[in-house]
Design brief:
This protein has a two-stranded antiparallel ribbon. It has helices at residues 11-16, 50-63, 67-81, 86-99; strands spanning 30-31, 106-107. It is mainly α and 108 residues long. Helix 2 packs across helix 3 (67-81).
Length: 108
């Protein structure tokens, strides 16, 4: 049976961890993590009824992401699904490739 990956509590532990022999560890406990690095240029503010917002929050929670990111991704998909200008579609695809990469894995 493979050993569990230890919980790393400090940056020093995290930096030293890959230097050791990792062959006896079970990495099935990991799940991919996503990070967004691009600065958001603008913001919106809108009122919505409670039931749709609760549904949005539930769907975001099921995916393990903040509900505001879920809303942003949904807007991007809706715009790309329509006949949007090719330049915008290309920009969204580049944004997704650059800023929605699965980063290092995070332990559950």
């Amino acid at each position: 049976m493979k050993k569990k990956v230890p919980r790393l509590k400090t940056n020093r532990q995290a930096e030293a961890f890959p230097a050791q022999d990792l062959s006896g560890l079970g990495f099935s406990q990991f799940k991919p993590g996503k990070f967004e690095f691009k600065k958001k240029d603008d913001q919106i503010n809108t009122r919505v009824p409670k039931p749709p917002l609760a549904a949005v929050k539930a769907r975001a929670r099921a995916r393990g992401i903040p509900y505001t990111r879920f809303i942003r991704e949904t807007l991007e998909r809706a715009i790309c699904a329509e006949v949007a200008p090719a330049a915008f579609q290309k920009e969204v695809l580049i944004h997704r490739r650059l800023y929605h990469r699965p980063a290092a894995f995070s332990a559950t």
